[in-house]
């Protein structure tokens, strides 16, 4: 699995846990159950995009105060998430506490990020291998309609034509020369 995708998924889970903790602790914060995954993904995406922008913009003026960038990133990401998802935070102190709780969670995540991704990589690779194997076989029943080695299901040709095989390993390949 692509390391960036895996890192994003692990981050979304970690940030989702911190958002859920804040939701449980703060009575005036609500992350709906069914749309919580959307809030997790949007929060992760926004924090991923906002952090580098703030670091470049404020980097020289707050050198040595990276915690300010962290707090600002979390606050802006919470604002974006509440504006674009059903997640709700009401009251000034709830905003303050939600920002602090999620910020502490991001600090913990940042400390263990590489280890979490390293631990998740074998699991993700195994799942990806199983998916590829099923696609190569043409499905869970092993119907054999997959195109070997491509991870793609087999595709039939035009009506009246035999199925095509872009790998060139099927019968009739290579095509007769003109």
From TrEMBL:
Q: Does the keyword Membrane apply?
A: yes
| Top-level lineage group | Bacteria
What residue spans carry the Gly residues bias annotation?
Answer: 140-159
Keywords of this entry: Membrane, Transmembrane, Transmembrane helix
Any idea what this protein is called? Phage holin family protein
Q: Annotated region Disordered: where?
A: 132-178
The signal peptide annotation in the UniProt record is none
- Which parts pass through the membrane? 6-26, 33-53, 65-85, 92-112
């Amino acid at each position: 699995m692509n390391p960036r995708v895996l890192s994003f998924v692990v981050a979304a889970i970690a940030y989702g846990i911190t958002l859920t903790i804040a939701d449980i602790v703060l009575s005036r914060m609500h992350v709906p159950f069914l749309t919580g995954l959307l809030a997790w993904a949007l929060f992760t995406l926004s924090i991923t995009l906002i952090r580098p922008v703030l670091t470049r913009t404020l980097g020289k003026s707050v050198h040595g105060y990276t915690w300010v960038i962290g707090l600002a990133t979390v606050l802006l990401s919470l604002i974006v998430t509440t504006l674009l998802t059903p997640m709700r935070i009401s009251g000034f102190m709830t905003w303050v506490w939600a920002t602090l709780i999620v910020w502490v969670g991001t600090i913990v995540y940042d400390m263990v990020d590489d280890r979490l991704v390293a631990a998740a990589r074998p699991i993700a690779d195994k799942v990806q291998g199983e998916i590829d194997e099923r696609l190569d076989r043409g499905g869970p029943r092993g119907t054999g309609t997959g195109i070997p080695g491509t991870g793609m299901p087999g595709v039939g040709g035009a009506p009246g034509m035999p199925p095509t095989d872009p790998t060139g390993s099927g019968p009739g390949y290579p095509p007769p020369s003109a």
